[in-house]
């Protein structure tokens, strides 16, 4: 039993099929799945495969983007309104979009991959970007022996230090030539501007880069001020007054 299930009180063995569906042969992979996430994968596979749902079977990575965006916003609303029950449902919908996207990718003729490859790639990224947590045991032991282990670990005790390390590791992996490289063009204008500000503020030449904004410097300052407030709506409501 996992630590998480101990804390929430929910156990994998608690699952039961919805009433009336117990004798559906198509659900055999769902019943036999070892974990809850495997059940999600199994039911999505049935829906997307031939003989499944006509709508699901016609979806593409592109056609599902609208759903992914909508479900993400709905989860954000649930979090911001502190609706725990709705968070359960909306987070499930976000999970569905990830699994569904990966199932579509699995059928690609030129470059197929599945959710397991996606998950393993994520695990490797989390490990390599947290060297202060996942250092080799022999390295940690030798550091403790010579008295330097505590000092090395203390460098990453603050969230700011850890974030700086994450960005450093990311920069090494991506080989980016510019602080603005890699910012998604699919974002709306306001979140994209916020991302630009975030990237620039982490640069050693931040003051010079901000000065280069010239006439739109006021807008940059607005984003900079709005971001620490912890609300997307601060900047949006402020901007709406000027319309």
TrEMBL record:
The portions of this protein that span the membrane are: none
PANTHER family in the cross-refs: NUCLEOSIDE TRIPHOSPHATE PYROPHOSPHOHYDROLASE (PTHR30522:SF0)
A Pfam family that the UniProt record links to this protein = MazG
Superkingdom assignment:
Bacteria
What species is given as this protein's source? Bifidobacterium breve
A single GO molecular function, which one? nucleoside triphosphate diphosphatase activity
Q: Example GO biological process term?
A: dTTP catabolic process
Instruction: Point out the signal peptide segment.
Output: none
Name under which the protein is recorded: MazG-like protein
InterPro entries, sorted: MazG-like_dom (IPR004518), NTP-PPase_MazG-like_N (IPR048015), NTP_PyrPHydrolase_MazG (IPR011551)
* NTP pyrophosphohydrolase MazG-like domain mapped to chain residues: 59-134
């Amino acid at each position: 039993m996992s630590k998480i299930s101990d804390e929430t009180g929910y156990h994998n063995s608690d699952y039961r099929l919805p009433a009336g569906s117990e004798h559906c042969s198509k659900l055999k992979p769902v019943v036999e799945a070892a974990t809850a996430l495997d059940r999600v994968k199994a039911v999505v596979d049935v829906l997307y495969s031939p003989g499944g749902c006509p709508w699901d079977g016609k979806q593409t990575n592109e056609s599902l983007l609208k759903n992914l965006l909508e479900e993400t916003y709905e989860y954000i609303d649930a979090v911001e309104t502190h609706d725990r029950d709705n968070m359960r449902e909306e987070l499930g919908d976000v999970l569905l979009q990830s699994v569904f996207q990966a199932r579509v990718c699995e059928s690609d003729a030129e470059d197929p991959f599945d959710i397991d490859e996606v998950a393993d790639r994520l695990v490797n990224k989390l490990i390599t970007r947290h060297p202060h947590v996942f250092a080799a045991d022999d390295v940690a032991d030798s550091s403790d022996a010579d008295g330097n282990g505590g000092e090395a670990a203390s460098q990453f005790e603050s969230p700011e230090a850890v974030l700086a390390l994450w960005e450093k590791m990311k920069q090494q992996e991506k080989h980016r030539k510019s602080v603005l490289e890699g910012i998604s063009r699919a974002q709306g204008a306001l979140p994209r501007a916020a991302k630009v500000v975030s990237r620039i503020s982490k640069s050693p030449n931040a003051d010079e880069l901000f000065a280069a904004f010239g006439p739109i410097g006021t807008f940059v300052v607005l984003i900079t001020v709005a971001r620490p407030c912890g609300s997307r709506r601060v900047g949006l409501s402020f901007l709406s007054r000027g319309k």
